[in-house]
Design brief:
By secondary structure, this protein is mostly loops. It has 1 helix and 2 strands, in the order αββ. It has one helix at about 1-10, and strands at about 40, 55. Strands 1-2 form a two-stranded antiparallel sheet. The longest helix has 8 residues, at about 1-10. The protein starts with a helix and ends in a 23-residue tail after the last strand.
Length: about 80
């Protein structure tokens, strides 16, 4: 989720509200070669749990384990 993404990028609550577009921004994104990603079902939600809206880079330690919500419909039955 967003917390893991920020941890992976070294972004802390001290960075809240900074200008991400400004030249003097302490947070800068560098573009590299495209990486292959994986998609899969959403984690910890009860609605639309089967939609492949979860994207991650395989083998990265920042990726949380998949846990289906106990309130979600059976696999294949969610909207």
């Amino acid at each position: 989720g967003p917390g893991n993404l920020c941890a992976a990028m070294g972004i802390t609550m001290d960075d809240n509200g900074i200008d991400l577009i400004g030249r003097d921004s302490p947070v800068a994104l560098e573009l590299h070669e495209p990486l292959s990603s994986v998609c899969g079902p959403r984690v910890g939600v009860s609605q639309a749990a089967d939609r492949p809206w979860r994207l991650w880079l395989p083998g990265r330690p920042e990726v949380s384990a998949y846990r289906r919500s106990p309130r979600a419909a059976a696999p294949g039955d969610s909207d």
